Amino acid sequence: MTAREIPFVKMNGLGNDFVVFDARDVSVRLTDAQIAAIGDRRSGIGFDQMIIVEKSPLGVDAFMRIYNRDGGQVDACGNATRCIGRLLMEEKDTDRATIETNAGLLMAFATGDEARVTVDMGEPKLEWQQIPLAEEFRDTRAIELQIGPIDAPVLHSPAVVNMGNPHAIFFVDDIEAHDLERFGPLLEHHPVFPEHANITLAQITGENEIRAKVWERGVGLTRACGTAACATGVAAARKRLTGRHVTVTLPGGPLDIEWRESDGHVMMTGDTELEFFGALDMDTLDTGKPVWRREEQGAA
Ligand SMILES: N[C@@H](CCC[C@H](N)C(=O)O)C(=O)O
Predict the structure, then answer these.
(1) How large is the average pLDDT for residues 144-170?
(2) Which residues are annotated as site, described as Could be important to modulate the pK values of the two catalytic cysteine residues (predicted)?
(3) CB atoms within 10 A of CB 237
(4) Can you give the CATH number for the domain in which 66 is found?
(5) 252, 190: one domain
(6) Domain carrying residue 164
(7) Phi-psi sector, 50: left (phi>0), alpha (psi -120 to 50), beta
């Protein structure tokens, strides 16, 4: 490793993938353009989110900073929380870790299978100001949207939930019958969402079984979105479409979501994958084609 290289780990949760930098002992500061260059799947390393692990100001195991592929910083990422929880638990050789985020403190728990991690994602926020929405809606189980170019009436009344980030969930009969790639960007930027929103299509497929696909704010279609799965579980239970313990199956695989009765917290359990270790040449970041390499010995 040369002086200007920084190590990274490539991980994913159900195919929602991350480049993770450890900035606990070195400073990693990147511009929006540099983040977008690293995230580009053709000319960079490629990721849905970039994660920077920092020292926790509150003194817990670590602080997790999250960036979408467009370079925007966001407060929550469920799949990354499981991945970083796994890294921290392996590092400390313990069965739990506490992660500070801009959305609060999150706890990760080992399950006995090193790749499978449970995370306490905290309580969902359900008031219109907390989503946030631009205008008052008393009942966030279904809000009426005015959307010109989208013709299907079913796509006008999503449930909205904040899981540390804003989500709109449209319950439909068949998630394949709607072109999420076409209307995802319109809904993400709808004026009712002043901070934009992650857009989910959800289909009830059985008792406590949901299929979903997600257009992520700042990214686009992803293989999975952990906070969207949590928000979908909460919304389905609030609408009495399911109970409080569901399996949400995304294109990348299933997540077990339980909205606990005892304290209102959302528990999420699912797989993580450590893809490879690598090193990034910091001197090439502004060329638009960052140079990086895999570390052979790290491959898992
Ligand atoms: N993939 C994530 C969510 C990442 C942030 C999201 N795109 C946003 O802008 O809020 C997850 O697994 O939760």
Answers:
(1) 85
(2) 167, 216
(3) 18
(4) 3.10.310.10
(5) yes
(6) 153-264
(7) beta
Pocket of ligand 1 (CB under 6 A): 16, 48-49, 68, 74, 77-79, 165, 198, 216-219, 222, 225-227
| Cβ(14)–Cβ(247) below 8 Å | no
Who contacts 240 (Cβ-Cβ below 8 Å, separation ≥6)? none
Of 83, 168, 219, 225, catalytic: 225
Residue 161 lies in a domain: yes
Residue nearest atom 3 of ligand 1, based on CA coordinates:
77
Q: Are 225 and 278 found together in one domain?
A: no
Q: Whose CA is nearest to atom 4 of ligand 1?
A: 77
Clarify whether residues 117 and 183 are in a common domain: no
- Model pLDDT for residues 44-97, shown as the tens digit of each residue: 999 999 999 999 999 999 999 999 999 999 999 999 999 999 999 999 999 999
SS3 of 58, please?
A: coil
Do 209 and 279 sit in the same domain of this protein? no
83 part of the active site: no
- 77 belongs to the catalytic site: yes
Please check whether residues 17 and 116 belong to one and the same domain: yes
